[in-house]
Write a structure and sequence with these properties.
By secondary structure, the protein is α/β, with parallel strands linked by helices. The chain is built from 12 helices and 7 strands.
Amino acid sequence: MSEYEAGTDFDAEERRIWAGRAEAFQAGFAKLCAHTACALLDAAAVGPGVRLLDVGTGIGTVAAAACDRGAEVAAVDAEPGMVELARRNAPAADVREGVLPGLPFPAGSFDVVVANFVVNHVGRPAAAVAAMRAATRPGGRVAATIWCAPAGQGHELFDRAAEAAGAQPPASLPRIASEYDFPRTPEGFAGLFTAAGLADVSCETLSWDHLADPEEWWGGAAAGVGMISQKISRQDPDTIKRIKAAYDELTHEFVGPDGRLVLRYHALLAAGRVES
């Protein structure tokens, strides 16, 4: 088994967390992740005729946006339900199942490889970035986003509600092995790109206000979508009811004039060039 093919327990747990939750993701948290799509494509200078691979495409948000720019788009995701939705949302893209770091394409196949909030979902982030670089031709670009630490007020809201309800964090939450982890800072994220051999590496912080209906935002957590929700969805039914009651009280701090939550979020966007 090669370095790029080796998996981790973290990866296996991530697959279990996301299995069967594509529709629930599309109904809520996908809208949060969509905020960075344009900035990600801008960082990679995506335009007409660019051969692009969108890694961990999810419901196809970035892939669809790249198609709208005239790019020739391929996309992969590990979850079959996501692949199905991405094919609907980005019909012009070639969407396949694929799991980082084992991308199903020959080396140097693309002008650009991007990943929107994916590197934070793999057990070996450095290997993931290295695989993205390997799929990119000399002179091409690699760009990716991850959440900062802390990520934003929506995460904080769930954590505070769970704490107010007296909920204990599940003991089984996966953790990246310390030897593979990295600081969720501009320097830490840029370091992955530099270590992968990319040149002209840059990393910036993106901040925005995400607007969400309170019940829509809760729905993603209740459905167990992603790591953000596991402290809630893995509780017993009575505890979940207490968390929901605490959540309903706390949302008043974040509700805007139109009744939607106004949640400040922060992400990191890194980019680099494959040397010729």
